[in-house]
Amino acid sequence: MNDRYDVVIAGAGPAGGQCARDLATRGYDVVVLETESEDGFPRQSNKSTAGTFPSMMASFGIPDDVVMQYTDSVVLESPTDHYVREQPGAVLEFADFKRFLVEDSRDDGAEYRFGARVTGPIMENGEIVGVEYNGDEEVYGDVVIDATGPSAPLAKKLGVSELERKNHAVGIEYELEGIDIDRPGFADLRDAMMLRLDHEIAPGGYSWIFHTGADTAKVGLCYIQNGYHQRYAKDGYTIDDYLSHWLETDPRFREAERIEGKQHRGSAHIQMPGAMHTDRFMAIGDTVPTVDPLWGEGINKCMQSGRMAAAAVDSCLKHGDLEPTAENLEVYETLWHREVAPNMQKRLLMTKLLYLAENERYDQLMADLGRLDDNTLAKANRGDIGAILRLLEAGDLPMLATFARREIGLDTLRSLF
């Protein structure tokens, strides 16, 4: 095998796979190191709900044959109410999707080494020049990219990763059959992706039902292990206990059964990113982190970060006379903040405010959304202050005061307005 490439990527998830696709298409020699064996890939890393939208499918040329179910609407649920917004989407078969990224980039010349566990960077004169894997194997590149997610074996050793345990989110999902998808008293979830705000089920987080056809769906929940979760958590409950409680108490699951082999667990960090690059190195995807803080969208964000990193590589290497120094790779962070996650700080604060609310306020939120025009939620989701204010009421003042004491300093408050 070759031991020198233009780019070495650690991790074959959506961020690493898309970065490899873009670089291989541009004609660069790229190798991807993936911990899992190729037989059965992805098995351990099949962790996403894989809900996405047509814009992602079109932007990245994702084929229909990795889609489990196209959806027509997004449903928001509270303990006693719901809101429906017409919004086309797609629920992917995540394993097929990841395999597609591998094969498509291979077709353009990318090399993959499976069963290659990255252990650390190879350094020369204070700069990363390659990667050690499987203990004693080495590969070298002009640029190295860490797309391994929270494990971040390269980013951490280079002092780039600033992931904090207090911002660590965990999730669990089952695939079920026999669900009552259109049960009286609940929203019709046929061809829908549903997100539920209910502290009894997911304290300080949310749960979901993503329809995957007939009477089947992906069903799960997640929360950030911080004070917002602890405020509503039950003593001694694990994330498995919360999911079991939901399945046992929601009548839509009365006849449902788990599909064998279809259980997924995942984790990510929900926080502002720190540094994302240094000399000859970039961190992408959930290594940054990149997951949308409000609704947990990960696939599109990760792939966008991979694309921005590929553009940064190209800006340095295409002429052959521009070294990939930290200064010259700065374009990656500029593009990330502009294209991948604009208004990140506002969205993080919106997330914390949302999870601070009581269940009764979630019921009122559904009623508020129902009386406002459809654009209000979309604008609020983008961090539009005017739209956010239209979703607030006089009764929210005590909650806002608590939120301000906990989270907002004067400088942050000024930046929002």
UniProtKB/TrEMBL annotation:
Residues forming the FAD-binding domain are 5-308
Give the residue spans that cross the bilayer: none
Annotated GO molecular function terms are: FAD binding
What's the name of the protein? Answer: FAD dependent oxidoreductase
